[in-house]
Amino acid sequence: MGETQSRPKAEPLNEVVPNDVWLEIADLSEPPALLALGMTSKRLRELLHTTSVWSSVLRTVYRQRNISEASYPVHLMSVVEMQRAATAPYRVEKILVASAKRTGVETAHHINKLNSSAVYPIASLGAVDLSLTHLVPGGRLFVVAERDAVSVWDIGLAGSPLLASPQRMTRCTVCAG
Predict the structure, then answer these.
(1) What is the mean pLDDT of residues 3-10?
(2) From start to end of 98-154, where are the E strands?
(3) Residue 153, class by beta-carbon neighbours within 10 Å (0-12 exposed, 13-18 middle, 19+ buried)?
(4) Model pTM?
(5) Given this model, what pLDDT does residue 20 score?
(6) 51-65 and 31-38 are packed helices; what angle lies between their axes, rounded to 10 degrees?
(7) Most confident of 40-54, 101-115, 151-165
(8) CA torsion sign, 83 to 120 to 159 to 52?
(9) Cβ atoms within 10 Å, residue 31
(10) pLDDT average, residue stretch 156-166
């Protein structure tokens, strides 16, 4: 009878692509996509789950989002802490979009770009209704809903004493529908 010829088994893409190409892809990827890429194989996890990769990613997020590098001292952070910090703006954005959908507000048209060009002492808020506040998991950031905006305050590294003078990191203006 006829022999069936089988094709040679192709190597998985993550095995044949050189490390420097993966690192270039990592450099061009958004933090959530980079986390997902690192979960696709043991090789990529070992390559991408490093201080050098995530410190670079976090510094890129700083520049893109106008976040003060003092907010997250990279030299004191573990890779997991850097990953959380780098993906935080994306998580906040996702929450804002979900909230906008629930309330019927079109986020893209009614929320200005996050901008931290100015940093103010938290005392400038005056009295704050605690029902309109939220401590972000991880404990570093405190979110305050104001009448026409949402502010994010840096209260210090989780596990450390609160900053003597907490700083407003960003303020997102929300326009009424």
Answers:
(1) 68
(2) 133-135, 141-145, 149-154
(3) buried
(4) 0.56
(5) 92
(6) 160
(7) 40-54
(8) positive
(9) 23
(10) 68
CA atoms within 13 A on the CB side of 173: 6
- Cα–Cα dist 121/157, whole Å: 17
21 pLDDT exceeds 70? yes
Q: Is the dihedral of CA 31, 112, 153, 100 positive or negative?
A: negative
- Which of these, 69, 75, 88, lies nearest to 167 by C-alpha position? 69
Burial of 176 (0-12, 13-18, 19+ CB in 10 A): exposed
The identity of residue 81, as a single letter, is E
- pLDDT for residue 141: 77
Tokens linked to 142: 């405190």
Six-digit token string for 115? 């901008």
Type of residue at 83 = Q
pLDDT at 75 over 70: yes
Alpha-carbon 51 to chain mean position: 16
Euclidean distance between CA atoms 136 and 143, whole angstroms = 7
Q: Tokens representing 172?
A: 């997102």
